[in-house]
Amino acid sequence: MNKTDLLARIIERLGVDLDVAQRAAQTAYEAATAEENIAENKYDTLGLEASYLATGQARRMEEIRQARLAYQQLTLRDYDPEAGVQLSNLVLLADEQDRQQRVFLGPEAAGLKIGEGQALITVITPRSPLGQSLMGKLEGDEVVLVLGNGRQVYELVEVL
User: Fold this and answer.
1) What is the CATH number of domain 90-159?
2) How far is CA 48 from CA 6, 17, 28, 44, 101, in A?
3) Helix (H) or strand (E) holding 15
4) Comparing C-alpha atoms, which of 140, 136, 137 is closest to residue 155?
5) Average pLDDT over the chain, rounded to an integer
6) Is 130 buried (19+), middle (13-18) or exposed (0-12) by CB count in 10 A?
7) Is the pLDDT of residue 126 over 70?
8) pLDDT grade, residue 29 (50/70/90)?
9) What is the dihedral of CA 53, 114, 78, 108, to 10 degrees?
10) How far is CA 29 from CA 6, 24, 33, 34, 36, in A?
11) Fewer CB within 10 Å, N side or C side of the chain?
12) What's the pLDDT tens digit per position in 65-86?
């Protein structure tokens, strides 16, 4: 999958996620404002809990909307060996057991997975430990991540 197709699929997926979040927020809002959920005493918290849920869903909806907008405005850049890995680069990594994984360095939506099997691509951001470690690296470089007591070493096999 090329980066243009990947970007289109990320935007499409965020659009679907936004629709789901909007429906969930509407359902939570309706539950929070339903007449049967009005508190009858101080221990009756169903309406209050529903309003907390509606607020959380509205926040999630806004996060997805902002992520989608960031991708709609993203300019895809080719890998520049002078600058190293930058935002919008697609990176093929191999660990010490030669297991490979593809990551796309995007502005938002960390953890989003596009594709499946060998074509699976995981979105990461420059704010993540791996994203921070990748910024500015060149093809063939090693990246060492120390997370807790664990240590992971990756080689940058290819950058697009």
Assistant:
1) 3.10.50.30
2) 41, 26, 11, 8, 44
3) helix 3-33
4) 140
5) 90
6) buried
7) yes
8) confident
9) 10
10) 34, 9, 6, 8, 13
11) N
12) 999 999 999 999 999 999 999 9
- Picking from 98, 72, 93, the residue whose alpha carbon sits closest to that of residue 12 is 72
Q: Specify the DSSP element, H or E, that contains 22.
A: helix 3-33
Residues forming beta bridges with residue 154, ordered by sequence position: 95, 143
Provide mean pLDDT across the span 48-73. 90
- Which amino acid is located at 154 in the chain? Y
Domain ranges within the chain, ordered by starting residue:
3-72, 90-159
pLDDT band of 91, cuts 50, 70, 90 = very high
Given the structure tokens 């096999």, which residue do they identify? Answer: 157
Decide if 61 contacts 18 (C-beta within 8 A): yes
